[in-house]
Amino acid sequence: MTTDGALARLIRSTADRTAAARTEVCDLCAAPVADEHAHLYDTGQDEVRCVCRPCSVLFAGTGAGDGRYRLVPRRRVRLPAVDTAALGVPVGMVFFVPRADGTVTAEGPSPAGAMRWEVDTAAWKELARTCPQLATVEPDVEALLVNTVHGLDHHWIAPIDDCYRMVAVVRREWRGLSGGGRIWPAVEQFFEELTERS
User: Fold this and answer.
1) Which of 126, 122, 107 is nearest to 170 (CA)?
2) What sign has the CA pseudo-torsion 51, 57, 61, 65?
3) Superkingdom of the source (predicted)?
């Protein structure tokens, strides 16, 4: 009886610790967050942080944190095809992020994470002139997300956390030199879910 009781307690304790380890918490105050939660962009660390509802309200446009944190918007806008060739990026799956300092970066997924390079600012401004919706992209927290791989034609204004989620999908599913058989169905599913969430 004593052994059975101790074993049951050990199993319960281990299960409780495992469940607690899986629970996502706010990166600012450590409170638990719901599955669907807000994100803040940390301008000092160039990272997206998970936040609970109170922290998202505190840091949303209040100037708290000396402007270090910016609330990531939830807007997702499907655009007609945007000719990004002038931006000089030779890959078909990429996102373009205008920065608060006026620069523009392009980031593309790879098996090792996001690759980043700078885009000619004049070329971005010209593209925004031909596609006025690009002028509404909020610096640092929104991006022009493009996927023209395998004949797809996705052009979105998307939150930066969605863009990093795409990078995570590629990194998680990539196998071998060419990506393997799981990568492209996973990417297609990501864009289908993006459409559903818009």
Assistant:
1) 107
2) negative
3) Bacteria
Range list of H helices, the chain: 2-22, 53-59, 121-130, 160-173, 183-197
The answer to whether 141 and 42 have CB atoms below 8 angstroms apart is no
Q: How far apart are CA 104 and CA 115, in angstroms?
A: 14
Residue whose C-alpha is closest to residue 191's, from 107, 83, 78, 63: 78
Q: What is the pLDDT of residue 10?
A: 47
Instruction: Give 5's pLDDT tier (boundaries 50, 70, 90).
Output: low
Q: What's the order of all strands across the beta sheet hosting 38-42?
A: 47-51, 38-42, 69-71
**What is the arithmetic mean of pLDDT over 75-88?**
92
Residue 110 pLDDT exceeds 50: yes
Retrieve residue 78's tokens: 């499907």
Residue type, 118: E
**Inter-CA distances, 61 with 67, 79, 161, Å:** 8, 27, 18
Sign of the CA dihedral running 21, 45, 62, 78: negative
- Are the C-beta atoms of 146 and 92 separated by less than 8 Å? yes
Q: Is the per-residue pLDDT at 11 higher than 80?
A: no
Tokens of 165: 């989620």
